[in-house]
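Entry 14. Structure prediction run on the chain below.
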Amino acid sequence: MNPTYQDRDDAGEVLAERLSALAGQPDVTVLGLVRGGVPVAATVAARLRAPLDVLVVRKLGLPEAPEVAFGAVGPAGVRVLNQQIADRLTFEEEDAVVRRETTELARRERRYRSGRPPLRLDGRTAVIVDDGLATGATARAAVAVARQLGARRVVLAVPVGAPDAYAALSRAADEVVCPVRPADFGAVSRYYDDFHEVSDDEVVAALTASG
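Output returned:
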């Protein structure tokens, strides 16, 4: 199978075309999910002539099964819980996970925001961009965090995604843009020729270049 996209910049060009109705709209903020979503989001933001920012979200995973999220933490002290799953934990277990992920979130915020003002989404259209959608857990957390931060409308844009994750996110976000949804999804990396691990320096450089 030939990769669908050359690299994240190419994927961003495709998404920007699908999002062209938002170009030049004054209430749009493009948010890259750290880290792989940021280069994609940078291209989208440039084409839409919209501000670029970064959304740092940390999933809260069950201690015995970290891939199962019971919630998420985001900027400005935002915490979103799936109470049904969180109820499986004792207070001490939940608190330990929240403390650990909040500490990591603060570290990443300091690194990536680098003196930028706190993220504000009051009344805005938040376009959340990632480089792919596998389980969808991080994206669902990001949508919830954006709403908590005051976004009027939340659009999720990903170049490729698993069909079941796409369906779940379509119920969570106001709109999901996902051009490629193969039945035999496998992994996000299959759909890129260049899918290198994005570094912290690349994230900071993209944000700095966006002004």
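The CA atoms of residues 32 and 41 lie 5 Å apart.
Filed with the rest of this week's runs.
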